[in-house]
């Protein structure tokens, strides 16, 4: 098992990674400036320049991933760290179940009230650690509203088209009722699972904190599956993703659909003033939503956007100011979500909404049902012990005015 880095070493490595990132960004700017100069001079670029730019971009992305990994690693407790001197009785009973399959103490602590054939609920401390980690590694979860519920669904009444305005009245005047068009949004929670495996040696090692081991093993699986659903989920047996809703030209926006801006070019940005469509996307949002807005795109789209300049020759994309911060585009933070579509043509009538922009805190709701369940299985994959771990989560758009999409077609 790899040893976790100590905090001082992690901080030093993070500093070096950030320095390497900024150095790579300076080389990227110089190389891309050379590419643009070649395009302007002879309407083509040198093959060597293109090759160098591709290598620099790969190094830039690698350094960004390295920084993200170090930031995440610095927030994780060590698996072999100090154990509590007197752990809670529930956690102690849960530890006995994880290591040896002892259910008697779980039953004694009344955890069978939430146990069935799908397993036992983990202690609240373990659930809290898993959710904390998901907030760090799941890009959409990190910017959306997250609500915990005890039931299998959450129903939210909303006023379609925004809040109704009643108007001004004097102190003693009658308050006429507002003509509000109420709608109800239902957010159902669906089951998400992970199945980490452990060896007998790991389970026998009392220096390993089983709570932290479980959180470490399932965080990536949960985060990847969640993000895929929050971006492109169908809504059937999974959350509804932001790119799965019906889109409409923003000038014809209506409640229940997401407004879009078109680039005017099939599968790309306009040749002249390509950044203008991004500005149009920003100002498609009302000012109240722009204050907390983020761009969401995958790394390949971000690579394309990184090359764009404004009319004065300034890059629209800017690197993070410090390690652990986000890059920015037009001074708005950029969130990288790998499941966002690539920039491509509108082949087969499939909408290519490669960039989302909006206030996702107001626009997208994630619903977590309380309780993470675990079922210990020492039989199915001997000599390994499997831990079938499930949680229920739902999600969908709650404010259709708060999110806009950029579609790469005419």
Please characterize this protein's 3D structure.
It is a single chain. The chain has 410 residues and is of the alpha+beta class. It has a domain at 7-74. Helices cover 36% and strands 20% of the residues. The chain contains eleven helices and 17 strands. The protein has helices at residues 7-42, 47-74, 89-100, 104-108, 124-137, 200-204, 210-232, 276-284, 287-290, 299-305, 360-363, and strands spanning 120-121, 145-149, 153-159, 182-188, 190-194, 197-198, 247-249, 258-262, 294-297, 317-318, 328-329, 332-336, 353-358, 364-369, 373-377, 385-397, 403-407. The strands form three sheets. The chain has an eight-stranded mixed β-sheet with strand order 7-8-17-13-9-12-11-10. Strands 1, 2, 5, 6, 14, 15 and 16 form a seven-stranded mixed β-sheet that branches. The chain has a two-stranded antiparallel ribbon with strand order 3-4. β15 (373-377) and β16 (385-397) form a beta hairpin. α1 (7-42) runs antiparallel to α2 and α5 (124-137) packs across α7 (210-232). The longest helix is centred in the first third of the chain and has 36 residues, at 7-42. The radius of gyration is 25 Å and the shape is globular. The N and C termini lie far apart (53 Å). Mean pLDDT is 84; it is low at 1-6, 78-86 and 108-116.
How big is the Rg? 25 Å
Please state the structural category.
Answer: alpha+beta
Q: Summarize the helix and strand pattern as letters.
A: HHHHEHEEEEEHHEEHHEHEEEEHEEEE
Percent range for β-strand residues: 15-25%
| C-alpha end-to-end distance | 53 Å
Low-confidence stretches: 1-6, 78-86, 108-116
Helical residue percent band: 25-40%
Which overall shape is indicated by the principal axes computed on the Cα atoms?
globular
pLDDT averaged over residues: 84
**Biggest β-sheet: count, sense, barrel?**
8 strands, mixed
Number of strands: 17
Q: For the largest beta sheet, what order do the strands appear in spatially?
A: 7-8-17-13-9-12-11-10
The tally of helices reads 11
């Amino acid at each position: 098992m790899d040893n976790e880095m100590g905090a001082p070493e992690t901080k030093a490595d993070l500093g070096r990674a950030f320095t390497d990132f900024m150095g790579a960004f300076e080389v990227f700017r110089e190389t891309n400036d050379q590419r643009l100069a070649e395009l302007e001079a002879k309407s083509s670029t040198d093959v060597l320049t293109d090759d160098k730019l591709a290598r620099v971009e790969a190094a830039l992305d690698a350094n960004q991933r390295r920084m993200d990994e170090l930031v995440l690693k610095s927030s994780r407790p060590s698996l072999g760290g100090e154990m509590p001197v007197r752990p809670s009785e529930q956690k102690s009973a849960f530890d006995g179940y994880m290591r040896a399959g002892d259910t008697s103490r779980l039953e004694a602590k009344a955890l069978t009230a939430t146990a069935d054939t799908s397993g036992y609920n983990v202690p609240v401390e373990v659930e809290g650690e898993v959710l904390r980690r998901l907030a760090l590694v799941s890009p959409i979860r990190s910017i959306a509203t997250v609500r915990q519920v005890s039931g299998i669904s959450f129903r939210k009444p909303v006023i379609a088209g925004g809040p109704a305005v009643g108007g001004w009245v004097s102190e003693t005047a009658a308050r006429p009722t507002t003509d509000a068009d109420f709608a109800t949004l239902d957010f159902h929670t669906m089951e998400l699972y992970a199945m980490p495996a452990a060896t007998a040696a790991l389970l026998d090692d009392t220096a390993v904190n089983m709570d932290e081991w479980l959180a470490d093993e399932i965080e990536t699986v949960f985060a990847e599956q969640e993000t895929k659903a929050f971006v492109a989920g169908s809504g059937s047996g999974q959350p509804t993703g932001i790119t799965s809703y019906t889109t409409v030209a923003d000038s014809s926006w209506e409640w229940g659909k997401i407004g879009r801006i078109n680039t005017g070019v099939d599968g790309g940005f306009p040749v002249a003033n390509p950044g203008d469509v991004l500005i149009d996307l920003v100002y498609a949002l009302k000012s109240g939503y722009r204050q907390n807005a983020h761009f969401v795109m995958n790394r390949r789209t971000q690579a394309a956007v990184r090359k764009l300049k404004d009319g004065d020759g300034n890059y629209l994309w800017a690197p993070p100011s410090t390690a652990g911060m986000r890059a920015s585009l037009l001074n708005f933070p950029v969130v990288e979500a790998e499941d966002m579509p690539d920039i491509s043509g509108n082949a087969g009538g499939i909408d290519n909404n490669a960039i989302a922009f909006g206030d996702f805190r107001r626009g997208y709701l994630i619903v977590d049902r309380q309780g993470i369940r675990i079922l210990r299985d020492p039989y199915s994959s001997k000599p390994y012990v499997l831990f079938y771990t499930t949680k229920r989560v739902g999600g969908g758009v709650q404010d259709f005015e708060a999110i806009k999409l950029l579609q790469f077609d005419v």
